[in-house]
Amino acid sequence: RKIILDVKGLQTSFFTDDGEIPAVDNVDFYIREGEVLGIVGESGCGKSVTSLSIMGLVPSPPGEITNGEILFQDKDLTKLSEKEMRGIRGNDIAMIFQEPMTSLNPLFTIGNQLREAIKIHKKDWSKKQVQERAIEMMNLVGLPRPEGLMKDYPHQLSGGMRQRVMIAMALLCDPKVLIADEPTTALDVTIQSQILKLIKNLNERLNTAVLLITHDLGVVAESCERVVVMYAGKVVEEGPVHTIFKDPQHPYTKGLLESVPDMRFKKERLYSIPGNVPKPGTIKTGCKFAARCEYAFDRCFVETPELYQTADDHQTRCFLFDPKEVQAHDRTVVKS
Ligand code: SF4
Ligand code: MG
């Protein structure tokens, strides 16, 4: 499958009184046509700034893309004017957010907002065509009795139904890429799972590539093929989902995996990685995870690890996977 979105060396910084703060620090990843790629990490790891960078929505000032390329169908999105980006947003690349209440206007009915969204793109359509399309979209995302629901206001719908409406709006123009930033975080577990199934189902039916951003590896397990793990603005591990779950390499990924709720063992308290994500720009030397890493050794505090290729489709930013290190110390600690 062809690569549809190719992010290369992306650097997005915020300029503050303390100087340049790199929120996204030399990040590379790609999505193939029709693929579901997960980006996972705790909040503050740069996931949302990455998606805003792709959409051309980094608040500027103080934010700015200072380096890198975002190639979409051979165009570098970082080079486009705001007017050109408006043509791409919503048409070729669409986005849904965590809390649909903030993206829906509380003063207008669902039908009104859907119809307006359709009319932006289909200016010559008749009232009847617009109405039929709205009903078709509501059916597509599994909303029951569309005619009745369209007369409702956003607050009359449940959180899960509102998110379905937002997905319908995002898919109106048949985008090539859908970016979903924590789309289920505000929902309870059963609804969460239904929305993920819907996204996966639409991905298969419409062949829309999906960039699914989440702090929860459990969400990734349900819906993604590949996953990129981010920590403190950097990619720390990338690989196929089944590999990452079976053989996580980066100590951070291992920590995230241990904090996935497992319904089979009713654990009383969920594990969480001790410590916090460092503020961007505060750690200048060494591995950014060192302060929280139970495997850290001397080198980790003075040198910065690169991404080591551990298999054709698997890479990890950790010295434990530096071939030199493995040779010198015969480190097997990660396999424990
Ligand atoms: Fe831990 Fe060192 Fe690997 Fe960083 S490089 S994750 S500190 S072992
Ligand atoms: Mg976020």
Outline the structure in words.
- The protein is α/β, with parallel strands linked by helices.
- It has 2 domains: 3-92 and 175-335, Rossmann fold; 104-173, no CATH class.
- 32% of the residues lie in helices and 24% in strands.
- The protein contains 12 helices and 12 strands.
- It has an 8-stranded mixed beta sheet with strand order 6-7-8-3-9-10-12-11, sandwiched between helices. Strands 2-1-4-5 form a 4-stranded antiparallel beta sheet.
- Strand 4 and strand 5 (75-76) form a beta hairpin.
- Helix 7 (159-171) runs parallel beside helix 8.
- The chain starts with a strand and ends in a 7-residue tail after the last helix.
- The protein binds iron/sulfur cluster (SF4) and magnesium ion (MG).
Q: Helix/strand-derived class?
A: alpha/beta
Rounded average pLDDT:
90
| Uncertain residue segments | none
Largest beta sheet: strand ordering: 6-7-8-3-9-10-12-11
Give the number of domains: 2
Largest sheet, in brief, is: 8 strands, mixed
Over all CA atoms, what is the radius of gyration? 21 Å
- The CATH first-level class of the largest domain comes to Alpha Beta
Chain oligomer state: single chain
Query: Residue share in helices?
Result: 25-40%
Query: Could you say what the CATH topology of the largest domain is called?
Result: Rossmann fold
Number of helices: 12
Question: Strands, helices and their partners?
Answer:
Blueprint: E1 3-16, E2 19-32, E3 36-40, H1 47-55, E4 63-72, E5 75-76, H2 82-88, E6 93-96, H3 100-103, H4 110-121, H5 127-140, H6 146-149, H7 159-171, E7 177-181, H8 189-206, E8 209-214, H9 217-223, E9 226-231, E10 234-240, H10 241-246, H11 251-258, E11 308-311, E12 314-316, H12 323-329
Parallel strand pairs: 3-8, 3-9, 6-7, 7-8
Antiparallel strand pairs: 1-2, 1-4, 4-5, 9-10, 10-12, 11-12
Helix pairs in contact: 4-5, 7-8
The structure holds iron/sulfur cluster and magnesium ion (MG).
Iron/sulfur cluster binds next to loops.
